[in-house]
Amino acid sequence: MKTSENRINDFTYAQIEPLKTASRIFRSFGKHILISFTFMVMLFLSTSYVSEEIATSDLRTEYYAPDMYRGLSSRLEQNSCKLFTCHSFLKTSHLVYDMYQKFGYKPVWTINHRLSSSATEVIQLLNNAAYYGLDKNHYHADELNRLYENLRKNPRADSMLMMRQDLELLLTDACLNFMIHLRSGIISTDSLYSSNLNKELADHLYKGIRHHDVTERILALQPDNLSYRNLQKALEKFLNSTILDDQRYEIPDPEYDHFKSYAAAKSVLARLGYLKDKAGENDTSVIHAIKEFQRYHGLTPNGILNKNTRKAMSLSNRDRYLRIALNLDRIRKSVDYKNECVFVNIPAYQLRVIKANKVQKSFNVVVGRPYTPTPELTSKIERITTVPEWNVPKSITLNEILPRVKKDSSYLIRNNFKVIDRQLNEVSPKNIGWKELTKENFDYYFVQNSGHSNALGLLKFSFNNPYRIYIHDTPSKRFFNSDIRAYSHGCIRLQHPDLFATYLVENNLHSEKKPDISKLVSRKIHKEIILSEPIEIQIRYLTCEADEDLNLYYYHDIYNRDGALINTLFN
User: Fold this and answer.
1) At residue 3, what are phi and psi to the nearest 5 degrees?
2) 491, 471 contact by CB (below 8 A)
3) Is residue 225 part of a domain?
4) pTM for this predicted structure
5) What's the longest Cα–Cα distance across the chain?
6) What SS3 class is residue 210?
7) Is residue 329 part of a domain?
8) Is the torsion defined by CA of 462, 366, 377, 395 positive or negative?
9) 176 and 264, same structural domain?
10) Which of 200, 252, 337, 410 could form a disulfide with 341 if both were Cys (CB 3.0 to 4.6 A apart)?
């Protein structure tokens, strides 16, 4: 069934042109006949083409709709998307063309000098772009507002048709650009706008306008995963309860000025909602508020105003907003897990097992140092190894172990290493002239025997990747108690590998007799366990997340990536 708006459009383009010709013929028969004819036309319109959006008096100005049709058709078919009444330019011109071609080059957002209900919805959505971590100024907000105001105030101006065409093209471009960013993240390279990934967006927008559910269809383009959903909703909550100011706070070191340090901290805690009542310098409520703040900033909740805590407190509300927006963009570009996934967030130092968009298990991890960072990747965990040996990577062999052996030849024996030559034969360390060896002529491999002192600990989880990293146990348990847990060479050290292994065996291994992980480990039995259903693993870098209660968590930017990306994407 056609909507009233479609009926109006059908009448306008199919029948108004013949009526213009008829009007000129009837004019020769005299003033009274012309008035009668006009009355008949208006009566026909009012009874057969009733529109909920357009007042009857507005229909007389829609007499110029064929000019709109010809203008849009000419500009788009000649690939001339230049805007004549504003200074913006179109970033999605080929998609704009596709969309209007589907509509037969009819205007879709304007009716005379007014906006359609779909246009009003979309403009409201674009004005609320901040709720999705996007900047409304990327979507011609000022120009659209100016064009509409000029059109509304001067509906019969000579430039009315040109302004209306510009508004049509500009709003379509803004909408398509918003859709690209909402689905795929902010794209800084213009050539990516023409990628095959975006070609169906014109059809998606066309269907939304035709079915009067354009807002729902646009928002449906967002990623459908737990990480994105929670963070986007938490951002809405944050913006509705926060003033986006640029005020930053300097928290003095309490060792130098104890009173000023706690006074400044109290001010920040009250501003952020962690401290709601009046409290003295060392009141229990202040210490509790500091601990809560630390918990939501990836810090050990000890109530002490240490360096990392003071640094986290110094951020302005706008800094926090940009951090949230950046990570929504990261998720759009890289996080796309389906039913079940092992998700490692590097700055959070956490590994989570996610199933059906719910966190099933969560474990603390240690990740790579800033100069040996853990890479971001997607793969599948295929096997578990109990009591593994460690084949030392060449970089660690040459840069760390070889220099130690040259100083102390007993290092290898004390740390349970064996030396393997090119023919894969074991060689006694005593038979090697270590002082003559250099990085250039070193021709051996180091393998550390299994056991508690092994760098991999007692469990290893393998997944195919070009970086030769894996998840493993570690004998260095003390690092799990640190605020900053970036100490590895790039591999991921897991705090409770036995629990993780047991979960995988129970859920991803189909066997009547499943191996008992605890027994294999306690008896020091080396075994390769191949999972029947390898589980996807995604390793990502997110410095801000939210939980299901929409609490925001901010993490230390351990690899110093945020600043440059924020400048690139949002400035």
Assistant:
1) -75, 165
2) yes
3) no
4) 0.84
5) 120
6) helix
7) no
8) negative
9) no
10) 337
